[in-house]
Fold this sequence. Notes:
Elements: H1 2-21, E1 29-36, E2 39-46, H2 55-60, E3 65-69, H3 73-78, E4 85-89, E5 99-100, E6 106-114
Parallel strand pairs: 3-6
Antiparallel strand pairs: 1-2, 2-3, 4-6, 5-6
Amino acid sequence: xxxLVMGLAFALILCMLSGCNxxxxxxxxxxxxxxxxxxxxxxxxxxxxxxxxNFSALKKNNVELIYYIVENSQLxxxxxxxxxxxxxxxxxxxxxxxxxxxxxxxxxxxxIERVED
Length: 117
């Protein structure tokens, strides 16, 4: 009985320690990985470290990439590559938004929220 309790305690400690080293899902987010022509390229649901990867590496790892067209020039100029953001597409009166069929797809940004890490 004593060996069983010791074994379970050891297993519990191992599980807790391994969980401490695993990357947190909360640390993941949507990061601006490039800017050009009033557009920001956002990589979705990645870690800060992954946001430093180049376009080809992210594409190879099947990371969702979306170009958001930023209509507000002042905001566009303030945004920085590497910044964590949440972007809501601009919708029409019916609540729909247009996705331009390109690779990566392009969507007009409605609201861009900066997120602190």
